[in-house]
Amino acid sequence: MNSVYVLSPQRAPLMPCRPVVARLLLKQGKAKVRRRTPFTIQLLAPPEQGYTQPLTHGVDTGSSVIGSTVADTMGKVFYLSEVQVRNDIAETMKERATKRRNRRARKTRYRSARWLNRRNSIKQGRFSPTMRSKIDAHLREIRFVQSLLPITSMVLETGTFDPHALKHPEVLHKKWLYQKGVNYGYANTKAYVLTRDGYTCQHCAGKSKDKRLEVHHLVFRSQNGSDEEANLLTLCKTCHDGLHAGTVTLKHTGKHKGDLRHATQMNSIRVQLLQRVEAEETWGFVTKEHRLLAGLPKEHMFDAVMIATRGKTPAFETTIVIKKRCIPDGDYQQTKGVRSEQRIPTGKLAGFRKFDTVRYKGQEYCIKGRMATGYAILMDIGGNKVDLKPIPKFSKMKRVSARSSWMMRQTTMPSSSSSLI
Ligand SMILES: [Zn+2]
Ligand SMILES: [Zn+2]
Q1: What is the pLDDT at residue 421?
Q2: N or C: which end of the chain has fewer CB within 10 A?
Q3: Which of 197, 186, 171 is nearest to 282 (CA)?
Q4: Cβ proximity of 314 and 75 under 8 Å
């Protein structure tokens, strides 16, 4: 089961159709192919009856992976995607600065050093290049979805816990996210405690290498210990089991903080997105409870499904997952050689550019490297080199799509979860 996306003659998105219908429309000459990944057709004449349904775009925001899905009010899912955002920007910029400093220190004709005169660094409301790239990746995905489907509302998951509801847990019961049998108040506090403790075991500070974190009641529940955050502590499973078995005694040596970089970035992304798009807000603890109720595996995509269906058990109308990976728009290094005498070709070589998507022997790859002798090194969407023997020739491959801000690949839903359909 798959969905084919349909556009009007003016390229406005319409409700998706089944592949059978799309094939018929194409055969009768009533539509043309607009896009191959994901498969999208454009009608040549306006449709007789414009039937649309309210569609919700659910976004699981993230500082490394964005989950994005579209569902209707019945819980039917029409679109599934995961976007990997760039996390290499700080590193590449540092590399550039080092090279530049090097050139200036050498006696070259390169312009001399400048000091603290960058307009950018004193600008108000400035974002670091990393943050700008991450915010843009979210907005790009939102625009992409809106160009394929007639979205009527959007729900963003912007953090793991709701800070307001910590003090006022009663607000959680008034919301649309209410589901029977879930104690949202405790789930929220638990998510908060994990964040407060920096996702680090407060006993061994991660020395046990146990990644499974649990929340322990200092005064046990059986002794009427409360569910408030002051009574809760993050422990890894190893330490927690040991504590209850009596082999470990809790030592209070102050709080161990984990890496808070991603949490800080996420907070910034959250504020910026809510300023730029009109959306409802939801939290990770709600999504997690709903995902567990629906029995879906722990993946960004499935979190996004539960966000888009607003907690309804999903019915998958499509099993195609669109994986995207954000890549740089250009190449920084332009030359090589001690005196930069050798230009690196960044344009086309035999009609191919780096990061172009090509079809080779029935499979889709991206170009990792090109050789003037007429060969290419190919990679998968993860950026890993694919070892092909003999080395692929340009003449044997066909360009499917040109380089853009992301590489896109169509995959099907993991088989472990297909039993749910
Ligand atoms: Zn531990
Ligand atoms: Zn415990």
Answers
A1: 46
A2: N
A3: 171
A4: yes
Cα 324 to Cα 33, 49, 82, 303, 343: the distances in Å are 21, 34, 6, 17, 30
Q: What is the pLDDT of residue 144?
A: 97
Give residue 337's pLDDT band: very low, low, confident or very high (50, 70, 90).
confident
Average pLDDT over the chain, rounded to an integer: 86
Same domain as 36, residue 61: no
Question: Token digits for 20?
Answer: 């059978």
For residue 258, what pLDDT is reported?
58
- Residue 175 is predicted with a pLDDT of 61
Lookup: tokens for 224 = 């009427």
310 within some domain: yes
- Are 292 and 155 found together in one domain? yes
Q: Distances in Å between the alpha carbon of 83 and those of 94, 184, 323?
A: 25, 28, 6
| Tally of domains within the chain | 4
* Domain span at 31: 4-43
Dist. CA 278 → ligand 1 center (Å): 41
| Ligand 2 geometric centre to CA of 198 (Å) | 18
The ligand with the least distance to the CA atom of 216 is: 2
**Environment of ion ligand 1 (residues, CB < 5 A):** 201, 203-204, 208, 236, 239
Count CA atoms within 13 Å of residue 358 on its CB side: 27
Interval between CA 231 and ligand 2 midpoint (Å): 11
Cβ neighbors of 346 (< 8 A, separation 6 or more) are 330, 331, 334, 353, 354
